[in-house]
Amino acid sequence: MNYKLHTLSSGLRVLTVPMLNLESATVAVWVKTGSRNEGERVGGISHFLEHMVFKGSKKRPSAKQISGAVDSIGGEFNAATSKDWTSFYIKTSINNIETAFDVLSDMVLDPLLKEEEIEREKGTIIQEIAMYEDTPTAKIGEVFENVIFAGSSLARDTAGTAESVKRIAKNDFLRYRKRHYYPENMLISIAGGVSEIKVLELVKKYFEFAHLGGGFVHPRGVSFVTNVFEPEQTKPQIILKTKKEEQAHFILGFLADGRNYKGRYAQGLLSAILGGSMSSRLWIEVRERRGLAYAVRTSIDRYTDTGYLGTYAGVDPVKVDEAIKVILDELRKITNHQSPITSHELKDFKEFLKGHFALALEETKDVSSFFADQVLFMDEILTPEEIFKKVDSVTLEEVNYEAKRLFIPSRLNLAIIGDYNNEAKFEKLLK
């Protein structure tokens, strides 16, 4: 799979991934900013702004006109906000690709940000926040980051709080856009059946920043990663969110490393062996042998400067103690050589990881995201084939080394949502 990366005179980067056998393509606009770049007073503004670009633009003053333009070409469109990026995309047939460029540029570069729409959307977002509060499987990740990244902007919820959302006004959006929505901080990525020449032609036509006047000048001297995370953890940490539920939901995990860490492929294999599939250690031990959880999985989340390896489980509230003990025991068995990672496991999970990764790149929007993430945050851009080679080169010694390096009892973190009100009960389990 090949790609080309261009930088225009404005500083805007353009990533093309030609897949010329396809009749569709995904066009995406990426902005290298998210909730970690916000001030606490306007927490959630990145996500709020993502909503607002759909509410009316210069060419299409209403939400209905924007959605109608996409519907008229049979396209799909959406947006997402994370802690360090915001993205907007349209997927459509290659015959309608110019309309996708037109609509996206209009939305992202020229949103109207009407005050009446801002006030109306506040209610929608506050309802969204409440919905996540009532959905533990979705909320538990944010709760875990509240504890593991305590003291950092990474600890804040992406959507903000009801109080911070209520405070956000039009001028806040204008200031935020001026600070972050400028060419050098943005990327256009296109994957699908469109030639590189055609893409560059359309980018220059629709993402020409000159017509926007002085609103998108590079704000020199501004740091765009606010509050870089510096771990200081010396003892286990717990956060308990009391909520009456039929199940208890928890994440148990450790600090890991950022996106560019050289041992990330070994860490990825370690995570997969622990809880990445139905043949993983924790799935077999926690679910199959002991029946403690319907779902148990281990994954790694990364940011530029840090990351974590965490295991999620949803369990019967009366079995939460046992489930935590079993997971901790499995980790100890690896680090104390009672049951180290084996060469057979490593071989099997290399194939699992490569196969899973290949399946995750079947859609043009996923291919676009895969390369865009690397352009925005990585020291080098690797193709899927190059990543497969990196995975294949990982040794057994490297995986076991990462286990010992990460699974340090004093750096253990636990987040729980359930019908409990006694943190001391769980503190004893982590000692």
Question: What's the quick description here?
Answer:
Helix content is 43%, strand content 19%. The chain contains 16 helices and eleven strands.
SSE diagram, text form:
Layout: E1 4-7, E2 13-18, E3 24-31, H1 45-52, H2 63-71, E4 76-81, E5 86-93, H3 97-109, H4 115-133, H5 136-148, H6 162-167, H7 170-180, E6 186-192, H8 196-206, E7 237-242, E8 248-256, H9 264-275, H10 281-289, E9 293-302, E10 307-315, H11 320-335, H12 343-359, H13 364-377, H14 384-393, H15 396-406, E11 412-418, H16 423-427
Helix pairs in contact: 9-12, 9-15, 10-11, 12-14
Description:
- There is one protein chain.
- The protein is α+β, with helices and mostly antiparallel strands and 431 residues long.
- It has 2 domains: 4-216, Metalloenzyme, LuxS/M16 peptidase-like (Cytochrome Bc1 Complex, Chain A, domain 1, 2-Layer Sandwich), CATH 3.30.830; 237-430, Cytochrome Bc1 Complex, Chain A, domain 1 (2-Layer Sandwich), CATH 3.30.830.10.
- It has helices spanning 45-52, 63-71, 97-109, 115-133, 136-148, 162-167, 170-180, 196-206, 264-275, 281-289, 320-335, 343-359, 364-377, 384-393, 396-406, 423-427, and strands at residues 4-7, 13-18, 24-31, 76-81, 86-93, 186-192, 237-242, 248-256, 293-302, 307-315, 412-418.
- Strands 1-2-6-3-5-4 form a 6-stranded mixed beta sheet, with helices on both faces. It has a 5-stranded mixed beta sheet with strand order 7-11-8-10-9, sandwiched between helices.
- The longest helix is centred in the first third of the chain and has 19 residues, at 115-133.
- The radius of gyration is 23 Å and the shape is globular.
- The termini are far apart.
- Residues 211-215 and 221-225 have low confidence and may be disordered.
